[in-house]
Amino acid sequence: MTFIQRRWLSATLGLLSLLPTAQAQVKVATLHPLLADLARQVGTDRVQVVELFQPGSDVHHFEPNPKDLLELRGSAVIFAGGMHLENYLDNLRDSVGKVPVVEVGATLPALKIKPGQEKYFEEDVDVKTGVDPHWWHSLDNVRRAARTISDVLTKADPAGATAYKTGLAATNARIAALKAWANVQIAQVPRHDRKLVTAHAAFGYFCQEFGFEAMPLLGLSREDEATTKHVAETVKAIRDLHIRAVFPEDQANPKILQEIVRETGVKLGKPLVADGTSPHAHTFETMFRYNIEAIVEALSKDK
Fold first, then answer.
1. Label partner for 218 (CA 20 to 30 A): which of 174, 202, 252, 293?
2. What is the rounded distance in angstroms from the CA atom of residue 220 to the CA atom of residue 124?
């Protein structure tokens, strides 16, 4: 081989090394933006994620339409939130045939409605099961959900087992770092001020994990309306317990809390992201960071 031929071969091999390695992606579909986030983190670049539910939509009113069903073609699996959040799953399973629909929340420890809280849920359809479906406000649950997604992907795509194991390890490291950061931030809030007054009962998992007392005015659904009695009880609790702030929620009407603020003079905190579907906070990290910063800002004595 001549010198010129060797130079040509070396240059050609160099160019080939710059080309992307061909790799068949596994197509997965998600019914919640937070599940899309986890699927991308765990699946790395080995998965192609199709988000049927887009950020900014209302999780309580979403149902796949014929166009969405077309996008599901070729999916290896469909990830749903579970815990009775999506009431259309039976119909979806009938439509997608053999494509497995995995309810990630079904593998997680569920939070039940506590005795005495029934008054907040009288008109809510979700309460028939006695389960709070907002499991994503617990980082421990997020870690468990990531493991479930890794196991499901490995079963659907055994050749990608190593990639999913690596993705899961990296995801767990990010979750651990996020929880450590959260605990440092929350330490700024005195323990006697760790009472989370919200319109809806969407933050029970958060309160359980981070040592807050949940004080919801309404139920799980955005349609619930507060009775005069509920409002009076909340006003009394705010005064008796010296509550520092109340929190509206994104994509929900803050009218009732605004009325309570006018009556009590309590601080109105920034709207919290309840369903993980906010356009500005629909990944686990952006949602947790935003919510915790908003809570600490309103409840810390130094703020």
1. 293
2. 7
Token look-up 């997604």 returns 149
* pLDDT of amino acid 133: 92
Q: What CATH number was assigned to the domain covering residues 188-299?
A: 3.40.50.1980
Q: Is 121 within 8 Å of 113 (Cβ atoms)?
A: yes
User: Which range has the worst mean pLDDT, 83-92, 154-163, 166-175, 229-238?
Assistant: 229-238
Report the C-alpha gap between 286 and 136 in whole angstroms.
Answer: 13
> Which CATH number among 3.90.1170.40, 1.10.10.60, 3.40.50.1980, 3.30.2420.10 corresponds to the domain 26-108+135-181?
3.40.50.1980
- CA torsion 205-206-207-208 (nearest 10°) is 50
Measured between alpha carbons, how far is 151 from 33 in angstroms, rounded to an integer? 20
Spell out the alpha helix ranges (H) of the chain. Answer: 3-18, 33-43, 66-71, 89-96, 139-156, 161-186, 204-210, 228-240, 255-264, 284-299
Phi/psi at 115 (5° precision): -55, 135
- What confidence tens digit (pLDDT) does each residue in 249-279 have? 887 777 788 888 888 999 999 999 999 999 9
Residue 276 CA to residue 282 CA, distance in Å, equals 5
Q: What is the DSSP letter of 22?
A: P
